[in-house]
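README: folding subset

This subset contains proteins for which both the sequence and a predicted structure token string are available. Records are stored as plain text. Below is the entry for Alcohol dehydrogenase 1 (380 residues), shown exactly as it appears on disk.
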Amino acid sequence: MSNTAGQVIKCKAAVSWEAGKPLVIEEVEVAPPKAGEVRLKILYTSLCHTDVYFWEAKGQTPLFPRIFGHEAGGIVESVGEGVTHLKPGDHALPVFTGECGECPHCKSEESNMCDLLRINTDRGVMIHDNETRFSINGKPIYHFVGTSTFSEYTVVHAGCVAKVNPAAPLDKICVLSCGICTGLGATVNVAKPKPGSSVAIFGLGAVGLAAAEGARISGASRIIGVDLVSSRFEEAKKFGVNEFVNPKDHDKPVQQVIAEMTNGGVDRAVECTGSIQAMISAFECVHDGWGVAVLVGVPNKDDAFKTHPVNFLNERTLKGTFYGNYKPRTDLPSVVEKYMNGELELEKFITHTVPFSEINKAFDYMLKGESIRCIIRMGE
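--- output ---
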């Protein structure tokens, strides 16, 4: 065990005191892990749009003060009672969803939606005892999606921690703990395009670019990017996108434009925007007989999906996915190996790097639409 095991650790964390206000670097106290938990030393973290969304408090019950962050790479500092798959010194990725290994979802080969550790954006405490592991002067600081990686040390449920190859660079693979796997898995695990096939990607943000990367890896020959911002098209070429459609450039529905481009529709479509219109277009642009559309984006709570049932009767398939259908502990190590053997390229997702002391710059880059992923170097 490490020499800090069982002790409270004092470290720096970027605390969000109120919605939309710059994060403040504070000294926090991080309690030792309890049963079934792990304390990680975070070395690199990156900013995801989900952090920004909840920091702005647009979509849920605001909960502050809070430590955000959920894409990260680190080293296990200590483990709580009963944790057997991790030990101090292991390299690990914390994940916003988990794998308890015991529930029906975990025992099913078809699901990654663990009953115990499924994402909960409203919870600001640990499942074990409904308390926080972070505090300042005895006052609790709330957790975010069970990870809170904008802290030099954090406590996470062991089922939400994937042990990875120690030779893999944590400053690159940290992006796998959320958005990249979400898009990549939507294509390779759910849409499953065949070599030589056509794939339409709706939305060319980080998740959409990862979906395009999945299509590239799968050997798709036509990868059509669909986005309302034409300036994104040039960057998308690095991810295998070789044709582009901006719906605003056409006076007919984009699904019709794509059907005409592809002699009846694409073989696969992956929707990564959360726009209900994009979801409908993605489904209606796939070819009858064999087309598959996969929904990734999270819609507004009042949205309803409307399409004619004949679209289903004509043998089009609509699927949804959560975290690319990856089981965090079981599957993430093999995704890391895809990067290590050169099959998956991660460097091109990383557009900016900042020291931890300048974490607010990462928010600025994302709000201005300048970054795909900004890596934050902890301890600087």
